[in-house]
Amino acid sequence: MVYFDHAATTDVFPEVISALAANLAVTGNASSLHHSGREARKHVEIARENIAMSLGALPSEVIFTAGGTEADNLAIKGLFWARHNANPTANTILASAIEHHAVLDPVQWLVDTHQAQVEWIPVDADGVVDIEWLRHRIDSDPETVALVSVMWANNEVGTVQPLTEVVEIVHAHKIPVHSDAVQAVGSLHVDFAASGVDALSLSGHKIGAPIGIGALLLKREYKPVPVLHGGGQEREVRSGTLPTSLILALGQAVSLAVQKQPQHADRTTQLRDQLITMIESADLGATLRGHRTQRLPGNVHFTFEDCEGDALLMLLDAAGVQVSTGSACTAGIPQPSHVLLAMGIPVSTAVGALRFSLGRTSTESDLHRLLEVLPGVVERARRAGKSLRAKV
Ligand code: PLP
């Protein structure tokens, strides 16, 4: 099988598997005061320091969560509630229209149930947020804005966002900025302090740690209202017994991924550009989506004319090549991606999307294997689509 879905989840580093397995055999709750508890706490704090050092943060700015979704929920709900409680006029969230559902849905939930307002920041045809729209919106009515959320890089089309400009505009009015950096850490250079963002989400399983662990980097001056209440761990912001082994794994994975990031980015960028050229030269009615250069090193995203992405995915899977359409199904029904629609792509084209995401184990021979089967798969999916359309 050839795996082109590293953006969904990627291989755990072998070193991390060994360290994790060894630690699972050790008993200890990091909140206990006895010897075993102190040993567990030591692992947690070492991991916290490693993550902070690797990502330009302070150890006290690292809050462990169960993954990217929880980090996003804590940032969006927690910061909204804290800001809104302090100043009821600040009731509006500005979030980019192309956020992952882990941001979109908590925002929409606050609107539906907590009298929040949302204004979605538009993007251009490449999926880049409209900086002038943001500047105008913030400058004309800053008092109403509770927080701004713009992802570091998009998980579907790979477009990297102009965060420096976002932060400059938003901070002029002392409004907090959250960035979902789940796809960026390990792929791009990420420095929390230098970026200026106030809150940053990351997820272990995208960078070589297991599924089920992540973190929110959060500046000390912010006290989000907790989403989880209980034992008061993690600055009383995220209650729950700390998963020592997973935290240890995350600490190691972040260190390794950040150390290896420059070479990893060079290698995947080269494979990415090679794959883009191969697909574009194969005359498959395929159009590259996302920004051609300002994109994640491992992201290749195309729409295929007159094809259904799901049909392409299933046919490729049957041929031993695993890819993604990039967007989620709702109750098993494929939906056109909100990201592509926000980029102005019509529904009929958006349904033909496929994302090929590359990782550490990707090789040039994977690209050749894909190109051996892709023309036949596209032809079959197109024929199936045509006969389906003829019947409707
Ligand atoms: N944000 C982005 C941009 C993602 O790509 C993902 C996962 O695909 C998430 C958030 C959710 O992270 P997790 O799977 O760790 O909950």
In words, what does this structure look like?
With 392 residues, this protein is of the alpha/beta class. Helix content is 45%, strand content 14%. It has 13 helices and 14 strands. Strands 2-8-7-6-5-3-4 form a seven-stranded mixed sheet, sandwiched between helices. A three-stranded antiparallel sheet has the order 9-10-14. It binds pyridoxal-5'-phosphate (PLP). Pyridoxal-5'-phosphate binds at residues 67-69, 72, 100, 102, 151, 155, 180, 182-183, 203, 205, 214.
Set down the secondary structure blueprint.
Layout: E1 2-3, H1 14-24, H2 35-54, E2 62-65, H3 68-86, E3 92-96, H4 101-113, E4 117-121, H5 131-140, E5 145-149, H6 163-171, E6 177-180, H7 192-195, E7 199-203, E8 214-218, H8 233-237, H9 244-281, E9 286-288, E10 299-304, H10 309-318, E11 321-322, E12 329-330, E13 333-334, H11 338-342, H12 347-350, E14 353-357, H13 364-391
Helix pairs in contact: 1-9, 2-9, 3-4, 5-6, 10-13
The structure holds pyridoxal-5'-phosphate.
Features:
single chain, 14% strand, 14 strands, 45% helix, seven-stranded mixed β-sheet, binds pyridoxal-5'-phosphate, 392 residues, three-stranded antiparallel β-sheet, alpha/beta
Q: Compute the separation of the termini in Å.
A: 35 Å
Query: Could you describe the largest sheet, including whether it forms a barrel?
Result: 7 strands, mixed
The gyration radius over C-alpha positions equals: 22 Å
Number of helices: 13
**Structural class determined from secondary elements:** alpha/beta
